[in-house]
Structure formats: structure tokens, C-alpha cells
């Protein structure tokens, strides 16, 4: 039995509690949040025996094997380093940190401690993205020339996920002072992974970020609303392809839509997670002439939660690990410099 603790008892932590709670051989034994009422309510909801506000006290328990870190982005580094120092295996939410230097320090600490470490880049749970990677690696599309990928959200417009102007879980995401890197850090990291996991590393970026006015004086209470909410990236992949990647919170008409198109000199593929997580469209071989698309169903993929537990059991660290989280963070950092200095940046290979 693997005994797991959750750090952070907010909205996403509920997903972790549900997924780990369903896994055979895993017991969620504790939760910690700075907010004691929230931690206790969370423990009651998910039947977790112990709730803490003192992280060190929870981590001092040697009957806890692993932690799931679901704190706010700015808290990932300190809380993860504490968990690693106490020898716990760790699944940390994305983005791994708020800058590449911190993410690299976390990856180095996990490597040196020899703990299993993974980042919850949750769209890796979609079987279609694994099938896309396999088709590209097998050469089915030929030489990849052109990529476009979008992550569209609309919680600044739609009330489907709650009120962004009233709820702390949205307000911290809008405020650099609360550790947010805006839409780029929040879901731009997902679309970077969604494109580069199948296509390959990104070697150069040119990025434009925008923060739109959305409240009087762009402030609500303690929250200064200064983090970007739309991001456009022009990228070059190490394999030579060009791509456009975008992320926005202003995609009226979409709740949470990810899509990817990849075009090679012998074929193309499209993934649209709104349509299906386990299916993709392909246009290959002779079909490229009439531009005829066919649907392919991808085999099932174990969830990241399951693969994290399997890694603890086997001692084999699956992907995406902290080193991958740090590599993505280097691209994000380059995007911020590119936007601030209005120029393209090459990334070290
Ligand atoms: N993988 C995904 O698809 C996905 C989806 C949503 C959120 N997330 C990530 O999950 C994390 C949490 O997001 P959320 O929407 O649940 O936010 P949230 O604001 O609802 O919850 C965060 C919780 O962390 C707690 N916290 C902050 N610092 C802490 C500390 N030092 N020790 C203990 N608790 C601490 C807060 O009190 C809060 O209860 C973020 O990093 C976010 O980017 C990932």
C-alpha cells in the first residue's frame, strides 16, 4: 500500500483526491493547507483521516511515502523542496515553478534525493496525443513543416467555472504579485507540452503577451490584475518546423479547448480534445492529394496519477518528470524576455 498526502486543498486538489482514491494500492492519508478550515472540510469530503496546516509536521511522518503538490504556482518550489528533503516521492502540479532557475533547482533536488518526480501535465492523459507522437516518430507524416496549437479558455467571460472577480482561485491567476505568470504560465505550459511532446523540442520563440483592462484601476481588493491573459507564440522546432501556439482566457464560446494540427511533407494529423480524447484525424499517403481525412482511435493510456504510482512501485521514473517541467519553464522564461524586448530568442539545445 502506498500512503499519499496532498498539499493544497483547493479546487484542483479534489481531482487528485478522486483519482488517487480510485487507484488500487493507494491510500490518501493526509492533507495540508495553510487554511485549516479548508483542509478539514477537504478531509471530510474525501474521507481523508488527517488534516494539517503545518507542512513540516505532515512531512515528518515516516509512514507517508509520497505527496501530491496542488498548491498555488508560487508555493510549488518551497513545498516541493520540503517534501523532497523529507524523502517523499512527488507529483507536482504545473507549472513546475514560476521561473526556470527554480524549476531546475527542484529537478536537481529530486534527482539527488532519488525520489520519483513527475509534473501533472494532465493533457498527457489524452490517448490521442500519444498516438500523434507515435505517428510522427514513425515518419508517417514525413518531415514536419508546420504546426498550430491552441488552448482556449473563457473564464473571464463565461460564468461556467464560477466568478473570476469574486473567487481567490481565479484572482491569484490574474496577479503577478500573487505568483501568477498569467495565461502563459497557467495553460500556455500545457499547450507548449501538447505541441512539443509529439513534434519535438522548441529551439526558438517570439512571443506577444497582453493583459486586457478588466476592472476599475485593474485592481480587486489585494489583487493587482497585471498578469497576461492572452499569449501568442511563434516558434521554431529543433527539427526545423515552424509553429504558432496560442493560449487565451478570452476565447468566448469555448470552456477548455485544446487543439493541435501538424503538417508534414507526406501527411498531416489533427487532435481536438473537444471532439474526443482518444481519437485523431489523419490525412496520409495518397489521401494528401484529395485532402481526405480519416479517423484513428488511439489505444488507452494510463493516467498520470496511475503512472506516478507505478513509478514508485517499479522505481522507474516515468515522464513528464521535473527535468521536463524545467525544460518547459525555460521556454516560458524566453517568452517573457521575447515579449518584453520585442525580439526572437534561441533556446540552448
Ligand atoms: N493540471 C491541470 O490541468 C490543472 C488544473 C487546475 C489547476 N492546476 C494547478 O493546480 C494548482 C492549484 O490550483 P487550484 O485551482 O486548485 O488553486 P486554488 O487556489 O483553488 O487552491 C490552491 C490551494 O493551495 C493552498 N496553499 C497555498 N500555499 C500553500 C502552502 N504553502 N502550503 C499548503 N497549502 C497552500 C491554498 O490555501 C489553496 O487552498 C496550481 O498550480 C494550478 O496551476 C492544474
TrEMBL record:
The keyword Oxidoreductase applies. Keywords: Oxidoreductase. It holds the Pfam family GFO_IDH_MocA_C3. SUPFAM superfamilies: Glyceraldehyde-3-phosphate dehydrogenase-like, C-terminal domain, NAD(P)-binding Rossmann-fold domains. Residues 130-270 form the GFO/IDH/MocA-like oxidoreductase domain. InterPro entries: Gfo/Idh/MocA-like_OxRdtase_N, Gfo/Idh/MocA_oxidrdct_glycsds, GFO_IDH_MocA-like_dom, NAD(P)-bd_dom_sf. Residues 2-120 form the Gfo/Idh/MocA-like oxidoreductase N-terminal domain. The keyword Heme does not apply. It comes from the Bacteria. Gene3D superfamilies: Dihydrodipicolinate Reductase, domain 2 (3.30.360.10), NAD(P)-binding Rossmann-like Domain (3.40.50.720). This is Gfo/Idh/MocA family oxidoreductase.
Amino acid at each position: 500500500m502506498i500512503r499519499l498526502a496532498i498539499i493544497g486543498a483547493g479546487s484542483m486538489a479534489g481531482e487528485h483526491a478522486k483519482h488517487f482514491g480510485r487507484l488500487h494500492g493507494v491510500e490518501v492519508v493526509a492533507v495540508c493547507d495553510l487554511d485549516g478550515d479548508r483542509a478539514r472540510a477537504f478531509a471530510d469530503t474525501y474521507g481523508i483521516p488527517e488534516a494539517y496546516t503545518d507542512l513540516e509536521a505532515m512531512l515528518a511522518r515516516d509512514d507517508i511515502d509520497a505527496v501530491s503538490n496542488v498548491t498555488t504556482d508560487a508555493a510549488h518550489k518551497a513545498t516541493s523542496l520540503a517534501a523532497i528533503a523529507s524523502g517523499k516521492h512527488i507529483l507536482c502540479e504545473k507549472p513546475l515553478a514560476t521561473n526556470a532557475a527554480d524549476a531546475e533547482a527542484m529537478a536537481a533536488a529530486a534527482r539527488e534525493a532519488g525520489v520519483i518526480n513527475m509534473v501533472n501535465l494532465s493533457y498527457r492523459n489524452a490517448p490521442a496525443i500519444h498516438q500523434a507522437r507515435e505517428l510522427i516518430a514513425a515518419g508517417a507524416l514525413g518531415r514536419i513543416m508546420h504546426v498550430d496549437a491552441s488552448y482556449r479558455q473563457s473564464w473571464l467571460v463565461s460564468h461556467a467555472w464560477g466568478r473570476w472577480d469574486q473567487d481567490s482561485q481565479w484572482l491569484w491567476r490574474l496577479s503577478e504579485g500573487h505568483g501568477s505568470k498569467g495565461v502563459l504560465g497557467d495553460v500556455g505550459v500545457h499547450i507548449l507540452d501538447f505541441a512539443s511532446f509529439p513534434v519535438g523540442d522548441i529551439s526558438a520563440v517570439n512571443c506577444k503577451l497582453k493583459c486586457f483592462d478588466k476592472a476599475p484601476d485593474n485592481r480587486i481588493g489585494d489583487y493587482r490584475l497585471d498578469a497576461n491573459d492572452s499569449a501568442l507564440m511563434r516558434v521554431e522546432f529543433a527539427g526545423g518546423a515552424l509553429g504558432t501556439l496560442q493560449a487565451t482566457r478570452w476565447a468566448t464560446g469555448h470552456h477548455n479547448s485544446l487543439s493541435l494540427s501538424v503538417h508534414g511533407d507526406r501527411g498531416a494529423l489533427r487532435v481536438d480534445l473537444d471532439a474526443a480524447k482518444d481519437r485523431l484525424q489523419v490525412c496520409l499517403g495518397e489521401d494528401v492529394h484529395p485532402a481526405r481525412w480519416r479517423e484513428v482511435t488511439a489505444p488507452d493510456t494510463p493516467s498520470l496519477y496511475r503512472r506516478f504510482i507505478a513509478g514508485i512501485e517499479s522505481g522507474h521514473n516515468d515522464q513528464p518528470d521535473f527535468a521536463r517541467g524545467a525544460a518547459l519553464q525555460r521556454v516560458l522564461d524566453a517568452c517573457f524576455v521575447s515579449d518584453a524586448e520585442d525580439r526572437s530568442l534561441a533556446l540552448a539545445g
